[in-house]
Design a protein that fits this description.
Strand content: 15-25%
Radius of gyration: 19 Å
Order of helices and strands: HHEEEHEEHE
Shape: globular
Distance between the termini: 69 Å
Strand order of the largest sheet: 4-5-3-6
Largest sheet: 4 strands, antiparallel
Length: about 130
């Protein structure tokens, strides 16, 4: 009986380690960000020294005011569009959100957005 209890404790310990590793690696949230963050410097900019620029990104959220408020509290650059699908093609019941990497701690901001259950993808926004 004692060996069985030890085996259960060991199994629980190992499984909790796997859960910790998944959250540490950020596997599911990182997969939602569909552009390369490693191209950006610490200020969220890329390009030559005399022409650095930020990356604009877009994603869809359900058309719920509380969700829009939550997104804006996480991302100070977020602009919410109620009637535009964007290139990402938000549905009629969704809001388009556009943000910028040119902000303090942009990687944490993107990670926090990606951990929201209702955000399924974050893609680079291209404007014409």
């Amino acid at each position: 009986m004692k060996q069985f209890q030890i085996l259960i404790l060991l199994s629980a310990f190992l499984l909790s380690g796997c859960s910790y590793l998944n959250s540490f690696m950020g596997s599911s949230s990182q997969q939602k960000i569909e552009f390369q963050l490693d191209q950006l410097d610490t200020d969220g900019l890329y390009g030559p020294e005399d022409g650095k620029r930020s990356v604009s990104y877009e994603f869809c959220i359900p058309g719920v005011v509380e969700y829009a408020q939550q997104v804006m509290s996480i991302d100070q650059t977020a602009i919410i569009y109620k009637d535009s699908p964007g290139r990402i093609q938000c549905k009629k019941y969704e809001y388009l959100v556009i943000g910028e990497t040119s902000q303090p701690d942009f990687k944490t901001t993107l990670h926090n957005l990606a951990t929201l259950d209702y955000v399924t993808r974050i893609v680079e926004a291209h404007f014409e």
